[in-house]
Amino acid sequence: MVQPLTVLPESPSQTAGPYVHIGLMPTYAGNPGAYAEEIGTSPIAEGAQGTVIEIVGSVYDGTGWALRDALIESWQPDAAGIFPGQPGADPAVSGLCRFAADAVSGEFTLRTVKPGPVPSRYGKAFAPHISLWVVARGINIGLQTRIYFEDEDNSDDPLLARIEQRPRVETLIAKKIGENRYRFDIRLQGAGETVFLDL
Amino acid sequence: MIDQGPLIPRNREMHPVPYYPDYKTSVARSPSLPLLSMESGPSEETGPTFGHDQIGALDNNLILNWTKGAAPAVGERILMHGRVLDENGRAVPETLIEIWQANAGGRYRHKKDGYLAPLDPNFGGCGRTLTDANGCYQFLTIRPGAYPWPNRGNDWRPMHIHISVYGHSFGQRLITQMYFEGDPLIERCPIAATIRNRSQLDRLVAPLDMAASRPLDFLAYKFDIVLRGRRQTMFENKLEGL
Ligand SMILES: [Fe+2]
Questions:
Q1: Does domain A20-29+38-187 have CATH number 3.30.1490.100?
Q2: H-helix or E-strand containing A113?
Q3: Which residues contact B121 (CB under 8 A, 6 or more apart)?
Q4: B198 contact partners, CB below 8 Å, separation of at least 6
Q5: What's the gap in Å between B161 CA and the centre of ligand 1?
Q6: What is the SS3 assignment for B31?
Q7: What is the DSSP secondary-structure string of A27-62?
Q8: What are the Intradiol ring-cleavage dioxygenases domain coordinates in residue numbering (chain A) (predicted)?
Q9: Where are the domains of chain A?
Q10: CA distances from A10 to A96, B12, B24, B96 (A)
Q11: Using CA atoms, how far apart are residues A133 and B174, in angstroms rounded to an integer?
């Protein structure tokens, strides 16, 4: 026999379901005024340092259909790569945004500042990226992924370096479609499947 | 700043399987390739913080919050309460918990829900709160009704409350559902069945807690939540090749 190892297992996830917006984005659900102040309506406030960018995209299922009910959260540091709460962080960057696929077109838009590179514990910095967490009906545990940018130097990024099939790196890289505008599509399954993360 | 150490890697055995044919929507929405596993970094080890000033006085009272206190919602009054802990058994204080649910008839206040059960004019169906210094939280609400949903020929969701938690870092992010002790629909639900480990599913079933219920007012159900913890060791070596 051995001493009992007392580790509490993490509570299991369950799907966020089709009505997740009631809880996280009440105005989108059709319930404006549920709260005096909604959380995550914008990752930046007036006066945020850096370049304001807009990222558009859709979340596609395995048949190529754009989800109309996906909800995404993004988390990021400021333009200098400092996260909210860390010393020296830009007070106008809250870092968190909640956005949803449009109920008609399935397209989402994220307006934010371009983040700076982030130091890692082991030397090489992470190239500028925005972390995403995707939930919807039919997704039993939230999917983590990242947006990198095609106009940044991603060559030394320790996470991208771990992707064995090099063409799959492209699934994490937002494509420039205009001045400070990018496109980033998420493919849940099948051809061009996005690299999802377990970090 | 003290480096608290990386997050303990997620044990996916404790979670639902992503692909579960009895839950039909999961079939085309589950990744078919493996996840890329790597030790957490700053993006996962930091996360948003929320202040008490952002939370309204009635935000955790779903019986009254939709009408701003003017009239109570219809339904069986219940207290949902518990603690948020991490895998190391430490309390998670000051973390945001958000919940949403159907009304007593099983109808959601959402532009996409057209179930024939009526809306309750006094019930919105969302609430939020911050845990206290000991990781404890409370919501006053009504017991949600079971409801049918289009899946197999005749599927009904057991009574449940959806729960979203942040913890202290984005990598701890979790959305789950609370079920109610004794509900026979739990055994028949393909969404509950996506959790293949029975003892893990049991952890989502809240027991009736008579000690916390208030005579002549409400019943109580206790629901504790465990989030990912962080590895804490004084021996953190630089990993080569990263
Ligand atoms: Fe539900």
A1: no
A2: strand A107-113
A3: none
A4: none
A5: 7
A6: coil
A7: HHHT-TTSSSS-TTS-SB-TT-SS-EEEEEEEEE-T
A8: 34-190
A9: 20-29+38-187
A10: 23, 10, 26, 17
A11: 10
Tell me the pLDDT tens digit for each residue of B87-144.
999 999 999 999 999 999 999 999 999 999 999 999 999 999 999 999 999 999 999 9
Q: How far is the CA of B126 from the centre of ligand 1 (A)?
A: 12
Amino acid at A168: R
Helix (H) / strand (E) element for B199: namely helix B198-202
Q: How many degrees, rounded to 5, is the angle at CA B16 between CA B85 and CA A138?
A: 115
**Can you tell me whether residue B30 is helix, strand or coil?**
coil
- Whether chain A has a CB inside 8 Å of the CB on B96: the answer is yes
What distance, in Å, lies between the first and last C-alpha atoms of chain B? 22
Integer CA distances (angstroms), B29 to A134, B152, B193, B212, in order: 11, 17, 17, 40
Report which residue type is found at B103. Answer: N
Indicate yes or no: CB of A188 within 8 angstroms of CB of B66: no
Domains of chain B (ranges plus CATH)? Answer: 45-226 (2.60.130.10)
| pTM exceeding the 0.80 threshold for the entire prediction | yes
**Model confidence at A189, in pLDDT bands (50, 70, 90)?**
very high
Please state whether beta strands B77-86 and B219-222 pair in parallel, antiparallel, or not at all (unpaired): parallel
ipTM: 0.96
Q: Quick one: tokens of A77?
A: 């540091």
CA separation for the pair A185, A192 (Å, rounded): 10
The first and second tokens of residue A82, run together, are: 């400092």
Q: Does B114 touch chain A (CB under 8 A)?
A: no
Residue of B nearest to A160 (CA): B36
Residue located via tokens 């009239």: B71
d(CA A15, CA A4): 32
Give ∠ CA B152-A139-B142 in degrees, rounded to 5.
75
Strands (E), chain B: 36-37, 77-86, 96-100, 126-130, 136-142, 147-149, 155-157, 160-165, 174-180, 205-206, 219-222, 225-227
Please answer whether residues B184 and B157 qualify as being in contact, where contact means their C-beta atoms are separated by less than 8 angstroms.
Answer: no
The span from the CA of A175 to the CA of A183, in Å, is 5
d(CA B104, CA B77): 10
